[in-house]
Amino acid sequence: MGKRINRQSVVTLLGVLLVYAIVQGSILMDILPPFVALTLIQVCIFIILSTSLNLINGITGQFSIGHAGFMAIGAYMAAIVVVKFQGPLMLALLAGALVSALAGFLIGLPTLRLKGDYLAIATLGFGEIVRIIFLNMEYVGGASGFSVPKTITWTWAFWLMVISVIIIRNFIYSTHGRACISIRENEIAADVMGINTTKYKIMAFTIGAFFAGLAGGIYANYLYIIQPLTFSFLKSFDILVMVVLGGLGSLTGSILGAVVMTVVSAALSGWPEWRLVITAILLIVMMIFRPKGLLGTKEFSLSFLGKKGEKNASSKD
Asked: Where does the chain cross the membrane (predicted)?
């Protein structure tokens, strides 16, 4: 078992390094089209957003659709640190993520007592309140937007995405993550067994908000300008669709959903009037044949490599 896990880890690491090397080499040789580079950065951003929302919706079993609000807080806070205070990029990203986490904690305290549709409405309202605040705040440009110098590169976006996924994965497989899963399965039973359900729901909500703020900071420091309209409730629905497409409760499913939706959206950019229609049709067809998402609650693994190795070893014996 240990050898299989080690083999999977090594193969996964080699795959990650290979993807980074291929893209970075293409950028250095100037053979990667700007549109493709933009799409790859967006893939990294949406992977962080979808995996962090999956921690709230899929792992803990809550129903939040206000993720764009946390993304907006992280984006504007990071932009303020960089533009207004001339702070370094890492400090800006960390500040945006921490302020988003604080907002998630403060919002989570009252709203996580709600369930189902009521929680969804409350988080949706929070996201819209955040957007309206930035829309009327002249300090950050208001409706016209806030210009931010481009300081994020492929290296920054990729490795921040990798670190984010690793941290979220480790949390899910920790005792805290198991407590969150027990809340998803049966909150009453978890409460009876002595699990502090409120504590773990707020913990998951805060961690999810932290990484949403980090993704917002990456977004702000790559696309030159941020506008409140970008962080409307439609952005929250886009992230939610990625999570549902990949499979609620599946971390690798969220990654797959983010990649598929981002690439499909980019491929259909030439037909803006049909993009949403075609995307909606694809989702309807997928939900008919795969109602639990592409991976459901399962995780993609490389266990077949371990089984193959074991078969070869046994055949030699």
From this structure: 35-56, 63-83, 89-109, 116-134, 154-172, 202-227, 239-264, 276-295
